[in-house]
Amino acid sequence: MKDLDHPLVAAYLDAVAREAAGLSPGRRDELIADLREHIEVALAERPDGGTTDVTAVLDRLGSPGDIVTSAREDEPVDVPPGGWHAFGPLVLLPMAGVLVMVHAVVSLLALAAGVTLLWTAPHWSRRDKTVGTAVAVLAPLSAVVITLTIGAYGQLGPALLIVVMVTTLLPVGVSLHLFRSGRRAAN
User: Residue 82: pLDDT band by 50, 70, 90 thresholds?
Assistant: First the structure.
C-alpha cells in the first residue's frame, strides 16, 4: 500500500480519474481499482521501488487518455429506444440535400439539426458519424456547385439529373447505413 502513496502514482491515478469522468461511475471505480492493484503488484516485484521503478511501471501502463479510451470501448452503449436521436438524423440529413434546391436557409437548418443530432447520439460509432457528416455536408455543397455551373453555362438536362441524384440518393444511402448500424448497436 505504501507504493501507492508515491506522488507519481497519485498524480497518475488522479489523471486517469479526470479522463474517466465520462464513464459510468461503476466502470470508473472498477478501472481505478484495477489500476491500483496492477500498480501495487508491479511495484512489489521491483527491488528498489524508487522513482525510477514507479516511472517504468506507469510508462508501461500507458497514458491515462489511452487507458480511458480503451475502457470506453469496452463499456456497453445505452441505445435510446427511439426519439430524435434515433430517427432525426435519418430524416434531416437527406432532407438537407433536397431542400438546398428549394430554400438554402431551410436546408442549412435541416443540415445543422441533423448533424447535431447525429453527433450527440450515443449509438453510432465515430466512423458512422464522420461518414454521415461528410456526406450530409458534401451532398448539398455539390448540388450548389453543380447548380451554379448550370446557371453559368446554361440549362443542362443531364447535369440537373446529377444534382437530384447526388442530393437525394447519397444521403439516403448514408441514412440507410446509419439505420442499420444503429440497429446493430442495439442488439
Answer: low
